[in-house]
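Each field is set out underneath.
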Amino acid sequence: MMYSAHSPNKKNGIDAQPYESHVSSVLRRAFDYANDACRHAKTDSEILLHIVRQAALFHDLGKLDEANQPILLGEKSSKSLPINHVDAGTAYFLEEDNFSQAIAAVIQAHHIGFCDFIDEEKKDIHVFRDLGILEHTNNELGDLLSIHNSLTSESIDPENDDIKGDPSIFLRIALSCLVDADHTDTAVHYRDHTEPPPYIQLRPEERLEKLDNYVKSLNKANDERSNLRSEMYQVCKTTDTHVGIVSCDSPVGSGKTTAIMGHLLNQAHKRSLRRIIVVLPFTNIIRQSVEVYREALKLEGENPYDVVAELHHRADFQDKESRHFTALWRAPIIVTTAVTFFETIASNSPSTLRRIHELPGSAIFIDESHAALPTKLLPVAWHWINGYSKEWNCYWVLASGSLSRFWNIEEIYHGETYTIPELVDIDLRKRLSSYEKNRIIYKCDLVPKSLKELSEWVISFPGPRLVIVNTVQNAAVIADFFNKKYGKNKVEHLSTALTPFDRDKMVDRIKERLGNKSDIDWTLIATSCVEAGIDVSFRTGFRELSSLLSLLQTAGRVNRGGIYDNAEIWTFKLKESDNININPELQISRAILQKYFEKGIDITPELSTESINDELKEKGTSLTFKKILKHEESQRFPKVEGMFKVIDTDTKLVVTNKEIINAIKSHTKVSWQDIQKHSVRIYGYNLEKYAIEEFMPDMYKWTLDYDGFLGIMAGALIAIKTINGEGLIA
């Protein structure tokens, strides 16, 4: 008699998948993933292999239940199985002879994520069990095991599963191995994608040689600044270290992008690391870094898009119909954002966690690390950075042009002090910093301005001008106002309201205009997405009151080459009118920066550590970070995921391109890269307001106007005007 693990898809000519075929494939894949991670484990390698193999072998035991098989064989139709199929495997590992709470927890979590372990403990001996079918599973377990043993010859002896390292990190890695194997095999069976190709190896020595030649080709000016950049590259590349975390404090224009990559490749060779991950702040524009790395690091015969993966935002799908679109960390070099990277580490969603097993044995470059995360999330992020460093052979470089040494703050180091060595010695840092002197002067005008007042004030300064505001809506409202008042040639707009495809086109246009020295009377209205990772330089800067760290980042986009003495960057406030909105998440950091201005404190990079300390002492911030840390230490996984939000609101993936939407709906193969390029993320509470439709599980389509200037805000502004019953001032 045949037993099925997955029901047939008669429409596409796909038969039911035999139970033994699925189990053996998941076991093979999960073991391979765990084995790769174990090569970098400091303490728990054998335990990880044991737990992952056991969980993979019994994860679908409950599918053999006689109530489930008619559906899985295609004899009956149902959207869900009548019996929760994870409970049987969980029950098996709670029996005395096989007892392992870790394996039981992983099996229970492989579809829904880990439970709250504190809440589960209240169930006593029934921890991790589905109480609604407890008696049914107990009665059927013996028969299910007999069938299972008749279908598979695999058997694994019980072993000790006493986890010695950080249990929360360990369990996420174990679940990742199982889920990735399960999802991959399911997608292959249903022909959603073919068998994944072999990994592309990092080959750090060869890529370092290629990078050397690339850097040499750049430094032809032979002036003092070019020579300092060359020295910076050589120092970073050759500096050796035996610790797991280093910092690199280097100013604007010092060649940090290539210098730190040289260092990481050298360390990857010495430490036998398998990939490099570059993390840029928030929802930053990452294309420039990606283009540099693809040109500088691709070896002969390689596809640059396979070597350097570009991940703009999370594209994670839990439903089996769409989860094959999930962006995984399989490339040797990955460039992503802090939102994607850190929310993945914090995640409890199986579709997101499935890539975590790729993190052990990685070199991670956190660029602009002082601005990578909201202050309230730094303590638990520091906890993870140390955990992956000490236990999973991850090597971290924390870099910035205005580095805050947040690890020296008591609330962050959490009882254990750290000495983090500098990658660049103090003499070279001083020589590099000499070009920062007199580059920027910080000014403020904190009288709130209307749209009309702001526009007239901004254009009175020499251009090109950069205006950065705190919300996507504010950027669109202001850009639309400038467009109607001064004409489209006088204004550009850049925010995450544009898809990555259109953001790339806009960046090209902005660089072209900045390169035209006679084209100076125009203004870029943008959000924080331009604060880092994009090599542009404006004559004058304006920043809506935000955090000190954001202001310092904005300064890196003004007078970048030091052409002018004392170029100005102004901090300003907006009136809450004309459809302008205020970001409540910035309330504390705004107040701290305003206090610095009111007290006449000089705005300098050295102030950044103090600003983080000031923010951590605020009641709202301190309560948040203490709760997250406590939840992490107690394995309260859903609470950690819920509280650790770089952007503190639930967002949904919304596709704007009709051709891609139609291709997905018709089951034509579409890559996650194409989905990513033509999508944006929308706050969940806006779905109804903008009449956004879900066309696939966890995928939504944009139905209002979209254009290359305002992006989705072209349609959203019309909806906002209608809702507010007012028009925008022309």
